[in-house]
Amino acid sequence: MSGCETRVVAIALDGAFADHSADRRAGQQYPGGRTRPASQFSGRQPATAETDELLKSQLSAEGPASAIAKTESAADANEPLPPNAGQSADIDAQRIKESFGYLMADAQSAMEYFYAQLFATSAEARAMFPLCMSQQRQRLFAALCRVVGSLDGGEASRAYVAELGRDHRKFGVRDKHHPAFFDALLATARHCAGRAWTPETASAWRAALDYVSATMRAAAAADAAARPAWWVGEIVAHEVRAPSVAVLTIRPDQPLEYAAGQYLPVQVSRWPRVWRSFSIACAPRPSGLIDLHIRAVPGGLVSNALVHHLATGDTVLLGPPKGVMTAPGTDRDLLCVAGGTGLAPIKAIVDSVLAAPAGPPRKITLFVGARREEDLYDLAALRALESAHPSVHVIPVLSEQPGFGGLTGMLPDVVRGNGLFSNAEVYICGPDAMVRRTALLLAADVPAGHIHHDPLPDTPDFPAAGPGTGAGQAATAPQGG
Ligand SMILES: Cc1cc2nc3c(=O)[nH]c(=O)nc-3n(C[C@H](O)[C@H](O)[C@H](O)COP(=O)(O)OP(=O)(O)OC[C@H]3O[C@@H](n4cnc5c(N)ncnc54)[C@H](O)[C@@H]3O)c2cc1C
Ligand code: HEM
Ligand code: HEM
Fold this sequence. Notes:
It contains 16 helices and 14 strands. It folds into three domains: about 5-65 and about 225-320, Translation factors (Elongation Factor Tu (Ef-tu), domain 3), CATH 2.40.30.10; about 75-225, Globin-like (Orthogonal Bundle), CATH 1.10.490.10; about 335-450, Nucleotide-binding domain of ferredoxin-NADP reductase (FNR) module (Rossmann fold). The strands form three sheets. A six-stranded antiparallel beta sheet has the order 6-5-8-3-4-7. A six-stranded parallel beta sheet has the order 12-11-10-9-13-14, sandwiched between helices. A two-stranded antiparallel sheet has the order 1-2. By secondary structure, it is an alpha/beta fold. It is elongated.
């Protein structure tokens, strides 16, 4: 058992990973297929002295390259990386794309064949894969297609595959799991190609899969030398601010480096192996504490657990922070547009700009959209920020409260109609549709490159403006309105 495994089980055993769902958790699996024995989760208990010691020792002088990270990289370093790690130049991408077509043409039988091969050769792999998660399946196919589609893409392809390698650390994937996975994939490609499979196709696939595996492993090992695969976060404050919104303050058990504006994956013990992204709502603090703003979506697994089931003293798992919508490197004024809990990363960015060593004075205008007044869950804190910093101007916008004394209407249109922002650095976060529409409207004034938001899915879904549609908050949006 590795260092990581020992650590999480130790925390689980002493009850610090407790919430109100002992019965559902019993016997369920945790990253890497570990199982929690039922008897060890008999209700919520306070963290013990043992946990405190554990947390203290992990927060001690070691720095980010912690014991857990060292253990993992040392174990994986035993397996030498193939010499072609990180080189895609010799891959016959065209040949692979052609035969990948056979696999895609009959995805159902490809899938059956793949899992039969994988599980026949690796019992451990069986425990690592969930039984049912169709959203994940779509992501997997998108990712596989992207890997195959970009095999001849040089640096961009290498960067994507490396990212996959880093991302898989939080699933408990280790070097030793790679051979069974890629052998199964190769066997599947051969099976699907049938008579079209030639020795040349075989060697093209082998070279490509060696490259993908080696690049993933090298990136994972480099990442493991710098940071853990996941952090245990203790909830130190849990405040329900609106009917379905809570603000959580979490103490990671080890230093967690991030840039203001980034998000991180969160897993709750009630839903083992289900990771959801949440934006960090503050700039990095000396205390290491992070804030999250969570909206519980109807029927949502992780968001409801975080808002309605977890409480102070409970713990969650945190994955590595990521995201490119980070604080500006310029001195331009700031226009921030936040819909719902899209406020979280925006607040972090504003925080970090205000904390930066004094530069030329810059105006920060923050539009905060919500449906009704009670949904402005962070208004008191924003007003306090405004009082402390005269450069900050907070403008609430409500979409479903016509009698409201302030601005009303659809957030993107209200922003567009209330100021000239051509010299501003623009940050937008919230439901996809709102982000898309705001970016579109502002693009008329603001030069390309000065409008920032997280990547959006391809399909536009902005509802027609009108009564009852909310401040641009569409149901499919990733970040709750
Ligand atoms: C980069 C990024 C950052 C994010 N940051 C935050 C954040 O700071 N705060 C926050 O609250 N959320 C944030 N989200 C959204 C979050 O990751 C989850 O998608 C959301 O909490 C739902 O997860 P769940 O497990 O509760 O719901 P699931 O179990 O995944 O979904 C259950 C049902 O709810 C629907 N659903 C999913 N999301 C929404 C939604 N937003 N509105 C309405 N219905 C929905 C699904 O279609 C499904 O029918 C972010 C998402 C991304 C991609
Ligand atoms: C990282 C590796 C993989 C993961 C995490 C993964 C995960 C999943 C999950 C969770 C499902 C949904 C199961 C369900 O809904 O019941 C699924 C289905 C599927 N997988 Fe995978 N998978 C992986 C690799 C592969 C590979 C390599 C192939 C093809 C060769 C493949 C082909 C499929 C297909 C075709 C389905 C759809 C089955 C259906 O429509 O019913 N998967 N996968
Ligand atoms: C071509 C290489 C690979 C691709 C394209 C790929 C793709 C993916 C994707 C897209 C996901 C879902 C990520 C998410 O939900 O955020 C995933 C999850 C996962 N992958 Fe892979 N993967 C690859 C290699 C591997 C390997 C080598 C293993 C080792 C066994 C592996 C095991 C897993 C596991 C265990 C999960 C999580 C399943 C869960 O619990 O939800 N993958 N993969």
